[in-house]
Specification:
The complex is a heterodimer of chains A (176) and B (570).
Chain A lengths: L9 E9 L4 H11 L3 E10 L12 E9 L2 H13 L3 E6 L5 E12 L2 H13 L3 E5 L3 E8 L1 H11 L3 E6 L3 E4 L6
Antiparallel strand pairs in A: 1-3, 1-4, 2-3, 5-7, 5-8, 5-9, 6-7
Chain B lengths: L7 H11 L4 E4 L6 H8 L4 E4 L3 H15 L3 E5 L3 H4 L2 H9 L4 E7 L15 H5 L5 E4 L6 H13 L5 E7 H5 L23 H13 L3 E5 L1 H5 L3 H11 L3 E3 L14 E4 L6 H9 L2 E5 L5 H4 L10 E6 L13 E4 L2 H8 L9 H13 L12 H10 L6 E4 L3 H9 L8 E2 L10 H12 L3 E6 H7 L3 H7 L3 E7 L4 H10 L15 H7 L3 E5 L5 H10 L5 E6 L36
Parallel strand pairs in B: 1-2, 1-3, 3-4, 4-6, 5-6, 7-8, 7-10, 8-9, 10-11, 11-12, 13-14, 13-15, 15-16, 16-18, 17-18
Helix pairs in contact in B: 1-2, 1-7, 3-5, 3-18, 11-14, 16-17
Classes of the chains: A alpha+beta (176), B alpha/beta (570).
Amino acid sequence: MTIAIAAPPLHTISLLVRNKPGVLVRTALVFSRRGYNIESLVVSPVAADQHHGPSGETFSRMTITCSGDPVTLEQIIKQLEKLIDVVTAIDHTGQAVIESEITLAKCRAALQDRTAILQIAENFKAKVVDYGADSVILRCAGESEKIDAFLTLLKPWIIELVRSGKVLMARGLADT
Amino acid sequence: MAEKKTTGGEKVIQCLEREGVDVIYGYSGGAAMPIFDALIDSKIKLVLVRHEQGATHMADGYARATGKPGVVLVTSGPGATNTVTGLLTALMDSVPMIVLCGQTITPMLGKDAFQEADVTGITYPVVKHSYLVKNAADIPRVMKEAWYIATTGRPGPVLIDLPKDITQGPCDAPFVDTVDLPGYHIPGRADPEGLKKAAAYLSKAKKPVLYVGHGAVISNAGRAIMQLAEKLGAPIVNTLLGKGACAEDSPNHLGMLGMHGTAYANKAVAYCDLIIAIGARWDDRITGKLSEFCTDAIKLHIDIDPAEFNKIVRPHVSLCGDARLVVEDLIPLVTKADTTEWWKEITAWRKQYPLKYPKKGGLRAQHVLDRLDKLGGRECIVTTDVGQHQMWAAQFCLTTKNRHWISSGGAGTMGFGFPSAIGAAMATGKPTWCVVGDGGFQMTLCELATAALQKVPVKILVINNRYLGMIRQWQELFFDNRKSGCDLEGNPDFIKLAEAYGVKAKRIKRSADVDKVMKWAMAYNDGPVLVEAEVVQEDNVFPMIPAGAAVKDMIVEKPKYRMEKPTGST
């Protein structure tokens, strides 16, 4: 009998960082130095946050999903905030947030399988973005659990797969 | 006639002048030439060292002795990589430093140019922050930010990579006087709620201990801490880097705690009911086995870096702020509990476990250092290298003034002692003793040339046991005395070596000669001198709490039983 050991919980941290060269490397080093694992990382520019004056400064938002226990996580957040280029780092795990990620899945779609694949796509509101003689590419957006379920069902046919990583935003007027 | 434009290199130097820099420790090279050229017309003094590592440690010693950042100027590639050890040393001990590196021209970045290295990439983990300047117009802002970051909050080293085309080309950007760093906050005073909670704990403690670290030195918190100790009736212990914040000869001072601290300091910590860390970070040299460290005591933590809270120890109250300001705010809030019984215990431990060393059987390092302390050492700055001599110096050289003790703690960098003494002596003009071992001294002794040229009042005390003593001690105690890589055969004649650099030197061979030679060295302040003490070859530092062990495992002499290998870090 195998005993299932719970995987360490996943946490998602949202950072507002100054858009300076090297900020991504410095952030990643916080994780690698202590052996913490980054599951996914998404970063892209945002408009200057209204809290920080019109100095011409550009900022980026970084969303990092990592695994670790609460003690570890507290240290991760503090070490990230210690970086000069990190303005804020907030752990949103278990809070009221909207989460989203996108996946592109290339599936081998011989004629006899095509119906099954397209039915799965329809049920998950995935869109066909490439329709070829032997393959299709499906694009699906939504919460990570939905994407996980979608890909599990498609597993028999998937040739190539890419996921964008999770982005999130706090609900209402709360700061992300 | 065309007006001469300011070059980027000149701008860099002018920015440093505006910050009040009076000396730069450097080593030249092709990529840094425009900056070296600019130095000729500046009132900033250039000290040409003999190795870039020496430059970083000199700047470090300068900074520890004064609180002002030390400034280093090196060239690209190997010049810059030679500063990595010095950067680590400064980062681990929170020392403000600015390291300027020449770099290849911007079009050649990343193309394996001559003497090019990805310096910012290599140094990310060993700096507080770093910059690669790709636009000359950024120079004034970068210099201002770098200075601000290095000197505020928890100080640290900042590296600035300066490509040659940037420093050679024009720079007409105006100087800046403010910084805009949205991601950087400097704690000041602690929050009132936390202060009230901490004061409540402190007022109830019958067996409190004040555990003082480098943060107290940096913020000059000594007087406030002494007042707090007085009010609480509490003893004071300090870390290696906390030496000097409070005068170690005060009656309520128990000396250094930790792996090689005094037995009575460690007992006080083990049996206290409250320990408050003031600018200290619960380092593994102090705590030993965490699961047995102060298990029943209330723990309070004062630190300017919030990332230190809950990193090693979960305190009952964390107070984020400048050590001096926080302690000053605590004093009016606390009331004294009765600590007479506590002091009875402490006094008994002091009598039972005094620091001691064998008086017979040859010249001992402890004896030489004891005499250094008694013959005027407390008026001098004392720097050390790393090893047994460092621990003995910490035990026997009492530090009574702030910033009079300079030693590499977090990184434990051998070769630090001598160049840091040069920097400290140049910064303060005070006579400076540097206590080094024969191992560490050989790592940076090329700076004898620098010391002689600058005529610094540095007195080099070489504790020569012809071994890497601390390694030999561990091998004797934990590895069945199997010696490996600790025998320093081939040591030079240090007297002849010093004299080859034009430095006067004398040797101590017998205990009877110690006072005579030490007094000679104390009296000579027109330049460096070297004193070599040929001490017994095999001697051990006690007390000792092996790495990862608890205070109950502390040994005050070599045990008869075989010891297990330590499980802690190093």
